[in-house]
Task: structure prediction
Amino acid sequence: MKKYMVLLGLFLITTLFSFGQTATINGSNSSAFPLCAGSTSVLTAGITGGFIAGDTVAWVQQINGGTPVVLLRTDATTATFTIPAVITGNSYLYTMVVRRGLNSYPANITITTTTPPTVTVTPAGPLNLCFGETILLTATNVVGATYQWKSSFDGNTGTWMDIPGQITNTYTAGSLGARWYGVEINYAGCTSRSYLP
Result:
């Protein structure tokens, strides 16, 4: 009789801790983000109120709507999972399931694969400037991308520094200061760079 009372007590405690729980990946129950082809990312599992002893976590991968595959099953002491490098053209659905007693709590995240955008910098004229002259530099316009212009005193093999406030696809360079200019753009998780001597 005592054995059954103990089991009933454990069941009631598990149910109490499980009621109204929500599982999360990176803090959200359902989300999506882009990832640059060839990259990986660390996903973090969570649940309302935190994990308790006995919880288990399973990570399931589904590529392009295909067959779900369990990639990792572990106890809740390991709450992170590093996804394999994504491949161009694929879409990935990752489902994380927290198992607590007789209850299961899923969360999912969709990852779309992107490729680095092609970017070039085009000067408005000759790069040989006289003292006090300026020249307009224009980078490829990628809709939705963020820009950061950079400068260097020692060229492509040297140190490149951000030019404060220069975050559009154009920049007016002068004959004073740095001798090399370039731009870095970020789009959907991918980064591309282009420099001018």
In short: The chain has two domains: 21-114, 121-196. The two ends are 85 Å apart (CA to CA).
